[in-house]
Amino acid sequence: MTESKESQPSYPTISRRERKKRETRRRILEAALQLMAKRPYAEVKIEEISAAADVANATFFLHFPTKASLIAAFNEEVASKIAEELGAFEGTAVEKLERLRTMMLDEWRKHRNMMRQLVTEFVAQPASMAAFSEVNQGLVELVAEVIREGQKSGEFDAHLDPYVVGLSLVSTWNAIAVSWAKTGDTDRATEANRQALELVLRGVLRARAAA
After folding, report:
1. How far apart are CA 142 and CA 154, in angstroms?
2. Nearest-angstrom CA–CA distance, 77 and 63
3. Using only C-alpha atoms, what is the Rg of the chain?
4. Which residues make beta-bridge pairs with 205?
5. Domains delineated in the chain
6. pTM of this prediction?
7. Which of 1, 8, 23, 48 is the least crowded, having the fewest Cβ atoms under 10 Å away?
8. Which residues contact 74 (CB under 8 A, 6 or more apart)?
């Protein structure tokens, strides 16, 4: 039976104003990615990124206080791509969480060198870990929405707060990303990322009745 529109999950949407803001941020991010793909991260100047994105330096700083804060725009892009795919993905809530995890890792792998440097510089800033949670807000909301969907379908424990589950999982992934940025051990980080999801799932899956 096909689900009605009312029963289908509603993944986070954004206003027109926020969309325009993100378009500018996306343009700046794309310019940075292109420049950093050709030259080392440390050699790319903010003035060059602004020129390539066709924005004023002041506009760059309006969106990004530092070069390291480009990670926020990157994560927004990743969250947007994942939300679009999950909206059309037919599968269980568990399968959606695994798909979310896989897509997130794929995007980070594509730009692994730059992302390692961005994360390293980002966490070196004062109050960085609190800010790190904020720049992953889109992923937290995505996980929370999948948890809600799983609660409605009976897969997940309905007594748990979906946002708390999302924050717990994404915060753990953040910690893994920091470790990966320091060591460069992609295989270990990938396995840790998978295990983090497995641990969360063990806590949210609805207990099965004894046979």
Report:
1. 18
2. 14
3. 18
4. 156
5. 14-64 (1.10.10.60), 67-204 (1.10.357.10)
6. 0.75
7. 1
8. 29, 107, 111, 115, 118
